[in-house]
Automatic annotation (TrEMBL):
<keyword id="KW-0479">Metal-binding</keyword>
<dbReference type="GO" id="GO:0004789">
    <property type="term" value="F:thiamine-phosphate diphosphorylase activity"/>
</dbReference>
<dbReference type="GO" id="GO:0046872">
    <property type="term" value="F:metal ion binding"/>
</dbReference>
<comment type="similarity">
    <text>Belongs to the thiamine-phosphate synthase family.</text>
</comment>
<dbReference type="GO" id="GO:0005737">
    <property type="term" value="C:cytoplasm"/>
</dbReference>
<protein>
    <recommendedName>
        <fullName>Thiamine-phosphate synthase</fullName>
        <ecNumber>2.5.1.3</ecNumber>
    </recommendedName>
</protein>
<dbReference type="GO" id="GO:0009229">
    <property type="term" value="P:thiamine diphosphate biosynthetic process"/>
</dbReference>
<dbReference type="InterPro" id="IPR036206">
    <property type="entry name" value="ThiamineP_synth_sf"/>
</dbReference>
<dbReference type="Pfam" id="PF02581">
    <property type="entry name" value="TMP-TENI"/>
</dbReference>
<comment type="pathway">
    <text>Cofactor biosynthesis; thiamine diphosphate biosynthesis; thiamine phosphate from 4-amino-2-methyl-5-diphosphomethylpyrimidine and 4-methyl-5-(2-phosphoethyl)-thiazole: step 1/1.</text>
</comment>
<dbReference type="InterPro" id="IPR022998">
    <property type="entry name" value="ThiamineP_synth_TenI"/>
</dbReference>
<dbReference type="GO" id="GO:0009228">
    <property type="term" value="P:thiamine biosynthetic process"/>
</dbReference>
<keyword id="KW-0784">Thiamine biosynthesis</keyword>
<feature type="domain" description="Thiamine phosphate synthase/TenI">
    <location>
        <begin position="23"/>
        <end position="188"/>
    </location>
</feature>
<dbReference type="InterPro" id="IPR034291">
    <property type="entry name" value="TMP_synthase"/>
</dbReference>
<keyword id="KW-0808">Transferase</keyword>
<keyword id="KW-0460">Magnesium</keyword>
């Protein structure tokens, strides 16, 4: 188990930001030393959502990991999550004031300058840009953004943390951070690995090197 006793308070997503589909995956990867995790539940029975968030949050906080809840902002408030992640459509439907009043930080997806302006108007705690590379996870109307867009986003948002997502692998991650991203969010690379835990360990070693750089 990682030593979290002397860890400084974490105010932004870690440089390695894995995303998992359920609490069972959260229990599998958090104890390896993951410091920031998004729980991205899709296709769950609604009665199952809050218990999954609560279970993931308990594991996360036991291990000094911040939990970001995707989409389910009401349940995130009820459970006391660290962050909520909202896409542009989620943002329209969400009560941002209530999320912030609950002390929960907010991350927002962006894919175009117009979406970035919309996101910034909500005063988020981080902005995500994607897909940087082609993603196999879901069909997207957006073409891969490429590395240059990362620099353009970072110039525009300044000190606000920038999370890059979409098709990111350990081989590509140095380039993504070098272009200006503060964090890389990852799903397919480790979820489809033959040994997901080993792949997470590869990512954690990369993250440790980033923190020293
Ligand atoms: C870090 C991060 N970036 C983007 C997304 C995608 O959010 P959204 O567009 O709302 O799509 P869903 O993930 O809800 O299908 C994300 N979840 N995390
Ligand atoms: C869930 C998601 N949202 C994206 C966006 O651009 O908003 S890309 C994406 C999937 C990214 O994961 P992978 O590492 O599997 O390619
Ligand atoms: Mg969403």
């Amino acid at each position: 188990m990682p030593d979290v006793k002397n860890a400084p308070p974490v105010l932004q997503p870690d440089v390695f930001y894995p995303i998992v589909p359920d609490a069972a995956w959260a229990a599998r990867v958090i104890p390896l030393g993951v410091r920031t995790l998004q729980l991205r539940i899709k296709d769950a029975a609604s009665a199952d959502v809050l218990p999954q968030i609560e279970a993931a949050l308990a594991i996360a906080h036991r291990h000094g990991c911040q939990l970001i809840v995707n989409d389910y902002w009401r349940e995130a408030i009820a459970a006391g999550a660290d962050y909520v992640h909202l896409g542009q459509e989620d943002l329209v439907a969400a009560d941002v004031v209530a999320i912030k009043a609950a002390g929960i930080r907010i991350g927002i997806s962006t894919h175009s300058i117009e979406e970035l302006d919309t996101a910034l108007a909500a005063a988020p705690d981080y902005v995500a840009l994607g897909p940087i590379y082609e993603t196999k996870l879901k069909a997207m109307k957006w073409q891969p953004q490429g590395l240059d867009r990362i620099g353009a986003w970072k110039q525009r948002i300044g000190a606000l943390p920038l999370v890059a997502i979409g098709g990111i692998t350990p081989e590509r991650a140095d380039g993504v951070v070098g272009a200006g991203a503060d964090s890389v969010a990852v799903i397919t690379d480790f979820m489809t690995a033959q040994h997901p835990e080993k792949r997470i360990e590869t990512w954690l070693a990369w993250a440790a090197r980033q923190r020293l750089a």
